[in-house]
Amino acid sequence: MTAPDTLPPELEELGALLREDPPRPDPAWARQLDARAAAGFSRPPRKRRWAKPRSLFLPAAGLAATAAVAVIVVIGISSAGNVGSNDSGSSGSGSSAGAPAPRSKESAGGESASSAGLARPKTAPPTAGGGNPGSDSRDARRQERSASMTLAARPREIEDVADGIVRVTDAAGGFVASSSVSGGDGGSFELRIPTNRLQKALADLSALAHVRDRRQSSRDITAETVSARGRLREARNEREGLLRALARATTVNETESIKARLRTVNARIAAARTAMRRVDNRARYANVSVSLVADRSGGAAADDGRWTPADAFGDALRVLEVAAGIAMLVLAIAAPFAILAALAVGAARVTGRRRRERALDLA
Amino acid sequence: MVPGDGRSTRVSTVTLDPATPTRPALDFDALYRDARDDVYAYVATLLHDRGAAEDVTAQAFERAFRKAGSYDARRGGERAWVFGIARHAALDELRRRKRTAALAADPEDAAAPATEDAAERALERAAVRAALATLPARDREVIALKFHAGLDNAEIAGVLGVSATNAGTLLHRAMNKLREAVDDRA
């Protein structure tokens, strides 16, 4: 219920007397105040003690917050970039890009070993394997290298990517050992690529489509090479000895016996040569298995290194994610302070109001 | 209102700011002309000190002038707003100075009462004024807001920060006290 504005008659009579007799200002003071009001109270505002510090504090705080945000954004973006680099690095190195593969002592760093020849220039730059290439006599060792990768492409791009795989293989001086492509479902390729062109070929293959998986490995076949070479040398020495014995043979039986042994040795020499060629081919050509799969999610756009609108969208999304994360952090940090500040302001207001009211009671 | 002409007339002119059409801007000049004497009367009744009332009234209008941009008509009338500022200034003055000096005598009517009725009325006014001076500040305040400033109960409630019902109750109690004080002095 709202109390009416009217009062009982006896009180209204008092009110009328009060209305007739309010305290009236001094006319001189009133004129002075009129003049000040007309001039817009032009008296310069009193400087508050905290005015200057606050005016400096706010821009400084804003600057500091901006700098902090910028630093966090840069750190976030650079860390994201590092993650990407590590990913690409792992996919391009001898280790597995997906599941970690055990690396034997022989295979460790084998990626950087010389391709076919036994001799390797000692000035060759160290590669992803790390360490000095000559520190473990890798320059005198032979490596069999192999790689596998899985490429994902849109179904309608499968044929083009398959053609690209063959084209890259030819350009590298290699050949397709076997291939199988089925329409828009994908396919598989077994490639032989000269070891000294393996890295470029892998890079070219990776540029054809989205690389889902890429692995490289190397296997030390020095022992097999030495063994084959030793067998060949041994057979050749035996053949030379037999030839000398044949020259010294005087009887028919002796001659026939030596010739029979020569045939056997010649067969062993041929086998040793074949083994040597096989080992040599294993060192000269790397086995590359390429699996081409269809990706119907649309996220398998070929990454040819160009910055596409899709990349821009992804980057923008990433920036927004980082910004949102920063905003959350700032909010998490600032919220308690803001709550405390609000409570302090509220308490100060209540206290001020109570003090004023107390002053009224004391008056 | 023209200074010195006694009671002011209520002016509720509100101009619209073209930049913010939905928020009426304060016509400070009109408000000043309308409320100057009323604010002074209210502050003088509350402080019981003419000099302090002049200072506080000037301070209140200066504050109102500087804070005119923050006036929001949706939160109450402009008179209630300026009286709220004046109240803060007056209470700050009370708190700072603990001033309870007796109200300097108001100038008596310049002209002598022309008739016997007028003389009787002048005596009644003097008795009421004297009785008012004996009331506690809270009672003087609500009476001044009602009868010197001309605020209605809702506006008084806005100034005091209470409900309109409570404002009416406070006013009724204060007037009863005034009645008793007048009777005691008779």
Compact description:
Chain A has 363 residues and is α+β, with helices and mostly antiparallel strands. Chain A contains eight helices and five strands; from the N terminus they run H-H-H-E-H-E-E-H-E-H-H-E-H.
Oligomer: heterodimer
Using the alpha-carbon principal axes, give the shape of chain B.
globular
Q: Which value, in Å, is the CA radius of gyration of chain A? A: 44 Å
Provide the structure class of chain A.
alpha+beta
What integer is the average pLDDT of chain B?
77
Series of secondary-structure elements of chain B, N-terminal to C-terminal: EEHHHHHHH
H/E element sequence of chain A: HHHEHEEHEHHEH
Largest sheet of chain A, described in full? 5 strands, mixed
Strand order of the largest sheet of chain A: 2-3-5-1-4
**Helix content range of chain B:** 55-70%
| Tally of helical runs of chain A | 8
Globular, elongated, flat, extended or rod-shaped: what is the shape of chain A?
Answer: rod-shaped
Average of the residue pLDDT scores of chain A? 76
> Count of DSSP E strands of chain A?
5
Uncertain spans of chain A: 81-135
How large is the radius of gyration of chain B? 17 Å
Descriptors for this entry?
heterodimer, A: 363 residues, alpha+beta, 5-stranded mixed sheet, 8 helices, rod-shaped, B: 186 residues, mainly alpha, two-stranded antiparallel ribbon, 7 helices, 2 strands, globular
